[in-house]
Amino acid sequence: MEPEPEPQKLSPMEKGSMELKMPSDKASSSRLPVLGLGRKRRLDKENALEPEKKRIRGTGTTIPMSCLKVPTVATMPRTKKQVTDVKSRKPISTIPAPKPAVSSTTARKGAGKRPAWDVKGQLCDLREEFSACQVQAEVLTRENLELRSRLGPAEQQARTLEAENKSLIRELTEAQAQTKEDQLELVKLGARVQELEEFLHTQESLIQSMQEKQLQLQEDRKDLTTRLEIQEKQLQESVAALAKSQAEITAQAALLAERTENLHCLEMERRHLLNQLQELKGNIRVFCRVRPVLPGEPAPPPGLIFFPPGPHGDSQPSTQLSLTRPSDDRCSIIGKLPSPPIRYDFSFDQVFLPDSRQNEVFEEVSLLVQSALDGYPVCIFAYGQTGSGKTFTMEGGPGGDPQLEGLIPRAVRHLFSVAKKLEAHGWSYTFVASYVEIYNETIRDLLVRAGGAQKCQGGECEIRLAGPGSKDLIVTNAQYVPVSCEEEVKSLLHLARQNRAVARTTQNEQSSRSHSVFQLQISGKHMGQNLHCTAPLNLVDLAGSERLDPGLSTGPADRERLKETQAINSSLSTLGLVIMALSNKESHVPYRNSKLTYLLQNSLRGNAKMLMFVNISPLEENFSESLNSLRFASKVNQCVIGTARANKK
Ligand code: ADP
Ligand code: MG
User: Fold this and answer.
1) How far is the CA of 136 from the centre of ligand 1 (A)?
2) Ligand 1 pocket, CB under 6 A
3) How far apart are CA 357 and CA 406, in angstroms?
4) Of 89, 322, 442, 612, whose Cβ has the fewest other Cβ atoms within 10 Å?
5) Region 285-295: what's the mean pLDDT?
6) C-alpha span between 29 and 599 (Å, rounded)
7) Quick one: which atom of ligand 1 is closest to the CA of 385?
């Protein structure tokens, strides 16, 4: 037997192919036992096809002679080499043939066929041949035994390999399924990779742009740093300058405080002097104003009203007025001598000529109005017959012409303006306006809005104390409107004009037969000095002062007019009496005799400042009424009310 060639060291691939071709006994050395199985099956098949041969090999001695001619070993090649050996009828390599038998037979064959008679020789040949066959049978039997002994492990190995094959097929199936899954996963991952690549691309471009930005920002930062350094340097300089300025400010603040205190003292001094000036002028003053002759009115005879020059000529405002009654022609008719013209001279605090402008008039009353801001109650009346110019003086002319604005709009404008200036001195003011009319001793609110509750009509507006312990008087159910600018006051005046009761009289088509009282309650406070002052400013447009017309009939309309006139005259005479009583310091002042004086009592008392305009018509036909008005005003002018005291707390 030839030694097995030393197994070469092979690569796994080569090894695998070798194993496929040359399965070994060791199961572990073969990973693909298919061929091994095939070999087994082939062996089985050969075995099945040649049972007879097997039996011969198994029994040995019972082999029929006919079968001995063909060696059975040739049908079971162990290897390819062995198969080749069998085909070539050579003895198998593992079992050497008995050389002597073969050589004798071969020698005999070569010697030719024995003659028929040489039975002994033939027998001898047969014996030789038989013994050769026996030897060969023994060899084959041994080989058979050996093959049988190797068949068991081979079958075992085949089973192992089959199990292994199954497991590998299973593994392969699983691997294939896994591969499919992996492929799907791979596809998904591919898509994801693509997606991520796109994202990456976007991010890269973003990063690039951000890098560019960063570069730009770095540049900017450099620039800013430079600027910051400059600014810091400037700031340091500024801080130093500021410290210096602060020291200066502190010094200035001390100076300012000192000056503010001085200013306050001066302000109080100014108020005091202003008050003294007003007192010197008189706490009750009377100004006379003669209106011009209006277009369409008959020109009065020359000298009817005369304005004698004052002691200082035309440089000083006029204070004198003379009324001359024309001579009475009727006297000559009845045979008597005509009565000579009578001259009536009057002297007032000031006389305004017909050509006086509204602003000139206001200039003379502005300081008086301003006293209200200092806490002095102020009352300005317009007295005169209907059509003499009272409303013109108080409210202004028609058409909203600013040049023709009267005392009320000018006074509020002046007060608002002065109050604003006084804010700089630490004063703050509030203003509340009301506007009522007194008609036939009935009070009516002139600020009631259209459609609003007309509660004050029907005698519901009454004069009451503002509250328990208060001396201030208010009109119940009347509007008290806070105002802070001229426009607000103007709209109130417009509303009042619409609401005012206007009655036709024979003297003037649109004469007011009622007193209208515009009241501005002023409150001021100085927080620094803890000062408070309150005072009312009253601007009163009195009803026409004309006397009862003896020509009135006894009809219902005339009776109504008679009642109106009596009420007006009564209240006007009460006003005169009140002023007289105050002037004479009488213990009883008849404020309650009329609604007008009752309402205004706080603005008429000793600490009040009063101004009366007596308005005169220049017409001859109004001579008597003008004379009456001037006489009434003269009486008032002679009154002196005690030294005024400001309502200060
Ligand atoms: P009263 O109110 O006394 O009845 P008004 O003020 O209504 O009188 O004046 C009567 C008319 O005279 C009005 O048309 C008014 O415009 C006009 N009038 C009054 N005073 C002047 C004046 N100083 N200058 C110009 N017109 C005046
Ligand atoms: Mg009027």
Assistant:
1) 175
2) 291-292, 294, 384, 386-392, 397-398, 508, 511, 544, 615
3) 10
4) 89
5) 95
6) 137
7) 3
Q: 502 C-alpha vs ligand 2 centroid, how far in Å?
A: 9
Q: Which residues contact residue 613 at a Cβ distance below 8 angstroms, ignoring those fewer than 6 apart?
A: 286, 287, 288, 289, 380, 381, 382, 383, 384, 390, 393
- The structure tokens listed for 646 are 């400001």
Q: Which protein residue has the closest C-alpha to ligand 1 atom 10?
A: 387
Cα separation of 201 and 207, whole Å?
10
* CA separation for the pair 117, 280 (Å, rounded): 207
What is the C-alpha separation between 339 and 266, in angstroms, rounded? 60
- What lies within 8 Å, CB to CB, of 188 at 6+ separation is none
Higher pLDDT, 297 or 23: 297
279: amino acid identity, one letter: E
- Residues 181-208 have a mean pLDDT of 92
pLDDT level of residue 302 (50, 70, 90 thresholds)? confident
Torsion of CA 80, 82, 87, 88, to 10 degrees: 120
What is the reported pLDDT for 108?
A: 55
CA of 315 to the centre of ligand 1 (A): 27
Query: Which ligand number lies closest to the CA of residue 382?
Result: 1
492: CA distance to ligand 1 center in Å?
21
Amino acid at 121: G
Contact 102, 132 (CB under 8 A): yes
- Per-residue tokens: 300: 């009065």
Cα 418 to ligand 1 centroid, rounded to whole Å:
29
CA nearest to 288, candidates 325, 319, 256, 323: 319
**Ligand lying nearest the CA atom of residue 295:** 1
Ligand 1 atom closest to the CA of 512, numbered from 1: 4
Q: What is the token pair recorded at 246?
A: 């602060």
Q: Kind and range of the H or E element at 258?
A: helix 119-281
**Is pTM, for the whole model, over 0.70?**
no
